[in-house]
Design a protein that fits this description.
single chain, globular, disordered C terminus
Length: 186
């Protein structure tokens, strides 16, 4: 079970649960959310493949591939070309395709920080990037965790490993896809 300590001190637990076909064979995952152990929502039906793609994309960005190489600090490197883009949004969906309770999303934000000067030198602004992971319950109560790319990588990698475990070792990466957050970007 993956989890994040949120800015309000609460703990968000995220657990992949297998989706099964009509004969009971697991083929994908949904994410169960808990806030401090209390059920919070169920989101992201069939989201495992997207999580696997994101994990690979974050790892590549941290290595300085693609647009991420513009950022000197590996903790500021994330996949995608937009400086303040969305990495994912998972919502609850019923069989009737109605949007119901629960949401888990991740957006990038660029944050300017003032670094004071030392020994008579002038201070300067430094830009940092962070991933804002937000969860919303069925009642509309929200939670937020602010992560570096290393923390996001560990969180998403953990979810992918657990998802593949509940799918009896099946790899979530089925087809190579080109674009932001993927192994093959052009």
């Amino acid at each position: 079970m993956g989890g994040l300590r949120c800015v309000d001190g609460s703990y968000l637990s995220v657990t992949p649960v297998a989706c099964t076909d009509s004969v009971g064979t697991p083929y994908e995952v949904t994410l169960e959310l808990h806030r401090d152990g209390t059920p919070y929502g169920s989101v992201g039906e069939r989201c495992g493949w997207l999580l696997a793609r994101l994990a690979r994309g974050v790892d590549e960005a941290r290595q300085g591939q693609g647009e991420a190489r513009r950022w000197a600090d590996p903790d500021d490197r994330f996949p995608g070309e937009e400086p303040d883009g969305e990495l994912f949004t998972f919502r609850y969906r019923s069989r009737t395709c109605l949007v119901g309770g629960g949401e888990l999303s991740c957006r990038l934000r660029t944050i300017p920080l003032w670094v004071p000067g030392r020994r008579g030198r002038r201070g300067e602004w430094r830009l940092t990037r962070r991933a804002y992971v937000e969860a919303w319950s069925t009642t509309g109560v929200g939670m937020r965790a602010v992560l570096t790319s290393a923390e996001l990588s560990a969180f998403v990698r953990g979810l992918v490993e657990e998802a593949e475990g509940c799918l009896k070792g099946r790899d979530l990466v089925r087809n190579p896809v080109r674009g932001p957050g993927t192994a093959e970007t052009r």
